[in-house]
Design a protein that fits this description.
With 127 residues, this protein is mainly alpha-helical. The protein is built from four helices and no strands. The chain has a domain of 63 residues. The N and C termini lie far apart (59 Å).
Length: 127
């Protein structure tokens, strides 16, 4: 019984040291490259990461879900830096269903916010 308690305490101490190490507390930015990496495709900013909070259910009167529309808007922004975030997300606020307009507007605003963040990250990464 004493051996089990001793082994358990050693394991708990080792886990505590591993968790409290400085490297484990940091989160990498979405475009972080591992040290020594030469693959530029790995270091690309993924458009879907900025649209995480948007719904994957279609809004009535629209052809694609807000998440899908946001991801395609982020891809447009990444391809064309002169495009504004509100212009890229413009299709999100249009719906044929009057009851769905508030949710479409909310998705549009979230997309614009994500687009501004993407443009900010692209400007800081130099890509």
């Amino acid at each position: 019984m004493r051996i089990r308690v001793a082994v358990l305490s050693v394991v708990v101490c080792a886990l505590t040291v591993a968790v409290s190490s400085p490297a484990s507390g940091r989160s990498a930015p979405p475009n972080a490259c591992p040290p020594g990496s030469t693959n530029t495709d790995y270091c690309q900013i993924v458009p879907g990461q900025y649209c995480k909070g948007l719904s994957k259910k279609k809004i009535p009167g629209q052809k694609k879900s807000p998440f899908a529309q946001c991801t395609s808007a982020m891809a447009k922004l990444k391809k064309n830096p002169d495009l504004t975030a509100s212009r890229a997300c413009n299709g999100l606020k249009k719906t044929k269903n009057a009851k769905a307009r508030p949710s479409a507007r909310k998705a549009y605003l979230a997309c614009v916010k994500a687009g501004k963040q993407l443009k900010h990250d692209l400007a800081n990464s130099g890509g």
